[in-house]
Amino acid sequence: MKEQSDDYIRGRGAQKNVHNRFFAESYHMEDEFLNYCHSEGDNPDDNKTQFLEVYPKTIVNKVESPDVGMAHSMNSYQGCEHGCIYCYARNSHEYWGYSAGLDFERKILVKKNAPELLTEKLQNKNWKAQTIVMSGNTDCYQPAEKKFGITRKCLEVFLRYKHPVGIITKNALIMRDADLLQELAKDNLVGVNVSITSLSEKTRALVEPRTATIKKRLETVKALSEKGIPVNVMLAPIIPGINSHEILPLAKAASDAGALSIAHTIVRLNGAIAEIFTDWIHKAMPDRAEKVLNHIKACHDGKLNDSRWGQRMRGEGEFAEQVSAQMRLARRKFFEGKSFPGMNYDLYEEMRDGQYRLF
């Protein structure tokens, strides 16, 4: 594989900020300004991550998309320093007034009042227990969590109210909270989804630059499983020409580590992500850029952008069917006799006030 271009920003996914569709004007650094900075020894962009506090009025969101396997989600952070180049959540950063590109990775919005808002939600007399997924949009164990600890405080709330919670992450930091997860698992109140998209560290570092290593993630699956915490591994997304050849080895590694199930999606590049991904792959993998982009289009009726319910996650055409066939084979070969447990919705009614009702 040809080395990255000279202007490749290492340690980041997106290689530029793209125009926010809600803004009439856009911001660009002209070559004249950049040349001046270079001659003066100045750095026009320090590439540092900023943490910005925000104070939302609610934290639990109803998921309206019919092809997403969750009813409700919550996100303690907006933006994600992991920098996964394909991340569908990038577009949501535009609603906050930022770019879906580098801003998404470098301007992290922190919701410190998330535990209090979650408590209010679970105390609401009209709320009926349904699984709330942490990381429905951005990773609740991204690097910011080590600094702010919001996810752990939210898990303490879920445990106090005996309410079911799902987690999606690419970060081994989840092991910090194994004690809480074990307590939740005793009552079937938690399900963990660990995303593993490649067994190649070189690929991982390009596609998901600030995530935990593959070794760490597999160790996390094993450690959680050994503690009785159910784990599903997300082979997601499958990107043609990048990780599509790894489905069976990934499935075997997940099963060997103790995962109870696997799931997948085909990459889709909606909204600003198409421009971000296209720019990235020409800089990160210039020798295979057009081939990968054409394969992605072949999965989505000739387009990078696919918003059709039901089709957008699975794709269509010969390649998408090959992926689905490999997933079926992987389940038969490596997951026979395994199953992911259902959630317990019965205990919450007894604990709505944060303590067992005696009468």
TrEMBL record:
Residues 66-303 form the Radical SAM core domain. GO terms for molecular function: catalytic activity; iron-sulfur cluster binding; metal ion binding. Pfam families: Radical_SAM (PF04055). Keywords: Iron, Iron-sulfur, Metal-binding. PANTHER family: SLR0285 PROTEIN. NCBIfam families: rSAM_PA0069. This is PA0069 family radical SAM protein.
